[in-house]
């Protein structure tokens, strides 16, 4: 592992042109309106997690296509609400795990709403998922999720994931224990990419914690790293000749730089300069396009995709401070 991308001075000024389709906003407006129209009531079922200082609810809500999405709502026991809430999204391959995996934010007096990722959560014993993806993409795909439905934005996997994630904010905000005016979105890697998308799509999100984000500046990512998951796209193009234009057209609807340019609130990013999974230039492409009211970035010069790990969680706790 070594420095392989732009220098830090170059990264600070790196603000590439965005590849944005003309109907980007119309596409997402229609997608989210369709999902809202298919939504049924969320279910919050008390769950005995053998934890004495929090109340836990095994949650199910309607995401894209009306499909039921699993989540955990974890609320400090006895706290006087309504409380601020962190909506937490999960990294690639992972699911919502178990309630005892998510006690940091309740320990600060905030609620946390941990959202499952459809179709994921079967590769790690500590990141178990419970939500299937009943909708297939139709085209051949490389192993993984990056090329599922990649020839058509209507069918692309992350259309469903991002829609689920936006719906999660609405569901959390409507719960009586949560103050809908004080919601943050958070995630690392894929979770950071999802949080960026939600910050750009949901007008009610005013705070985002975006840690070594994935799903940003796709055209550069696939040319500067040969690590998965971006390599899944390369593998697909290596066999599906003539599909490049369709692939990158689809990805332009899901690029973190386009969502960051629509963000309204504040954000704390993190970046690791030796990260070969989410290259630093792809992180800065999103960060430098962030259009919200305030932004900061924590830089880890000697780290790979783990970023600041526990140190970064401490940085998030301090930064969030009086902001939420």
Task: Provide structural commentary.
With 324 residues, this protein is an alpha/beta fold. The protein has one domain (8-133, 158-222, 248-323): Rossmann fold. 33% of the residues lie in helices and 19% in strands. It contains 11 helices and 9 strands. The chain has a 9-stranded mixed beta sheet with strand order 1-2-3-5-4-6-7-8-9, sandwiched between helices. Helix 2 packs across helix 4 (157-174). The two termini are 36 Å apart.
- N-to-C series of helices and strands: HHEEEEHEHEHEHHHHEHEH
Structural class: alpha/beta
Specify the helix fraction band.
25-40%
Provide the domain count. Answer: 1
Q: How many angstroms separate the termini?
A: 36 Å
CATH superfamily: Alpha/Beta hydrolase fold, catalytic domain
The major pleated sheet works out as: 9 strands, mixed
Number of DSSP strand runs: 9
Instruction: Specify the overall morphology.
Output: globular
Assign the CATH class: Alpha Beta
Could you tell me the strand content as a percent range? 15-25%
Mean pLDDT: 96
Unreliable spans are none
Largest sheet, spatial ordering of strands: 1-2-3-5-4-6-7-8-9
User: Radius of gyration in whole Å, from Cα?
Assistant: 19 Å
Number of helices, counting only DSSP H or I runs of 4 residues or more: 11
The assigned CATH architecture is: 3-Layer(aba) Sandwich
CATH topology: Rossmann fold
